[in-house]
Design brief:
Radius of gyration: 22 Å
Helix content: 25-40%
Oligomer: single chain
Number of helices: 8
Number of strands: 8
Strand content: 15-25%
Order of helices and strands: HHHHEEEHEHEEHEEH
Length: 229
């Protein structure tokens, strides 16, 4: 091979753009647009896009495979700005990518297993059932979710008013969460509001005890302990 006659590869125009503009581009193609509460700087760019381009806008994670520089710049955005569903018992150990959180949560079937990228995840959703025993401990929840940027907890029970908040108490030691939302079967919402405030406190801040639990406006009624089971 005659190395003197090799045609030099032209520079990539995309990578020649300023870093700030490239970041906006990665935001537009790597952050799922269907997340209800997602807010990112590149959203301002959508206001100036023609409708035809908005309709063709699509999620494109494969761009990270094109070269090392794009992978280095885009990987923290892909894993840090999107939502992931936490495992019901292993929590942040085997998260799954959420293709959509609104109006329906749609997740990819395969979990994320590489520690190199799981440590980049900052936004989690978790589905919690009140009518079964907790599948994780308070210390596991504290270790997994303390310091994350966002945590969304979906609360469910088979019979409304049939369970107390024992399972949600596993989250009482979680601290320093940037944004917390708890939705679902929450009774009058007082305990959920108290828990949100606890989880957003700095690490090491003790929580004042919550003395009342309400389900449907009345003191909670546990079907297992009071239903002659």
């Amino acid at each position: 091979m005659d190395l003197d006659n090799i045609t030099p590869q032209p520079d990539c125009r995309l990578l020649a753009l300023p870093a700030e503009l490239r970041t906006h581009i990665w935001d537009l193609i790597l952050i799922q647009p269907t997340h209800k509460a997602i807010v990112f700087p590149a959203a301002e760019l959508l206001r100036y896009m023609p409708e035809s381009i908005k309709r063709r806008r699509r999620f494109c994670a494969n761009i990270l495979r094109t070269c090392k520089q794009i992978a280095a710049e885009g990987t923290p955005i892909l894993y840090g700005e999107n939502y992931f569903r936490a495992h019901p018992s292993l929590l942040t150990a085997l998260p799954r990518f959420l293709m959509s959180t609104f109006p329906e949560k749609i997740q990819l079937p395969d979990p994320i297993t590489q520690p190199r990228v799981t440590k980049l995840i900052r936004r989690y959703c978790i589905h919690v059932r009140l009518d079964i025993d907790p599948r994780f401990t308070r210390s596991q929840a504290e270790e997994s979710f303390s310091g994350v940027e966002e945590l969304h907890i979906d609360v469910f029970q088979a019979m409304y008013g049939g369970s107390d908040f024992t399972v949600l108490k596993m989250f009482e030691d979680v601290r320093a969460v940037g944004r917390v939302s708890i939705e679902g079967s929450l009774g009058d919402g007082r305990y959920a509001a108290w828990l949100v405030d606890c989880m957003q406190q700095p690490v090491g801040t003790p929580a004042a005890p919550f003395h009342e639990e309400y389900v449907g406006g009345t003191p909670s009624w546990d079907a297992w302990s009071r239903g002659k089971r």
